[in-house]
Amino acid sequence: MQQVKFDIRDYIAIVAVIIVLIMTVLDVSLMNVALPIIADDFGISESISVWLVTIYQLVIVMLLLPFSSIGDQYGYKKVFISGVTVFTIGSAFCSFSSGFIMLLLARGLQAVGAAGIMSVNIALIRTIYPRHILPRGLALNAMCIAVATAAGPSLAGWIISISSWHWLFLINIPLGISAFIIGLRTLPGNPVKYDVRKIDLWGSLMNILFFGALFYSLGNITRTGDIVISSIIFVFSILVGVIYVKRQLKSEKPMLPVDLFKIRLYTLSIGTSVSSFIAQNLIMISLPFLLLTELHFSELSTGLIMTPWPVATMIISPIAARLIDKLNPAFVAATGMLIFSLGLILLLTISDDISMGGLIWRMAICGVGFGFFQTPNNVVMVMATPVERTGAAGGMQGTARLTGQTMGSTLVTIIFSSVVAIMASVKICMGISLGFACLACFFSLDRGLQIRKKRINL
Fold first, then answer.
1. CB atoms within 10 A of CB 50
2. What is each CA distance from 70 to 78, 109, 197, 347, in whole angstroms?
3. How many Å apart are CA 76 and CA 60, to the nearest integer?
4. Which of 56, 80, 104, 131 is most exposed, with minimal Cβ within 10 Å?
């Protein structure tokens, strides 16, 4: 049973969740800026240094669902505290790394902790917040992600300008210790208790092999262009995936939440999430190439042009949360995707002589649309699932986001390698992004009709 009141203890518990959420998000954007410096420090190529980002993402996506399943069984608090501990220890090893291999292994350890944190993040928010103000909690979650994403590059640049890259990881240690102490004392237990089952080791192994091989094959073809090896790994991932799904269908409470896909609202929400993040990454990755190489904006100007998107999302998310109290959340999400689509259409109209201001307000419109979309989408996805399966739902939500982001980045690479002209390549990316945004809008409209028709109370 969820709490009725929201007291000071709950506010303190949320602080622990927010601290660690910002840490894990920052560690992606901070590393992107630091890669060239780390590559130079260790005397390695930039293509090899990219593994510091790749291993972080791979480990997280492989472990999200196993950890969320463990959270449902043994407690979200236990998984969260364990994740914070491992993440902090991994950060310490990263900061004291004397060689690239040591840093790479430490990043992998750090990612294990991040997976534990991310796997139960949404579940903890649902547990802490009373039902009537849950949208505000999810909005705060989205806002923190937007702030960390927007501030990451600037913060990394500032830290590196006054010190070494080691401090990018050292700052996690006091924050991690603080979150550990606060979380240990204030985080609640799971709202629903049931018999603890044994950990599904075979299911965990197949989950790791399926998602690991799938994401590695997509990343490998973008990095090396090796179609043969990438195709073999991809086919292997599909074969493992088929066996994995068949096995999970026989489970009473599966790690891969195939049982939740029987819930139409949940299935539509996963489809919406994947489509929206494909659309987002197509723009976020392709546009800087156009700004830097074709339109000849400086690195600083390019950063300023890209910033209005996450800033607008940060500002709009709390407004969207309040709208959910009065309006159908799926329709609010659909409206957000419509606004986002409008921003994409306006981006498609840009020409060689576009001004910086003209790009900034177009990016802001995209951010406003995503702000109206993200929180309502998460609310529908979370509230469409039984409370005892919140961990699995949250883990799948993170998996859907990473899947969409990876597919988006893969599409950008394929388009850029097939089309010579930068402007044409980016316009194609924008067109495909618009298509996925419209698909996400369609899914959300369908969800809204389901909620209204069946009078579902979210």
1. 16
2. 9, 18, 9, 44
3. 17
4. 131
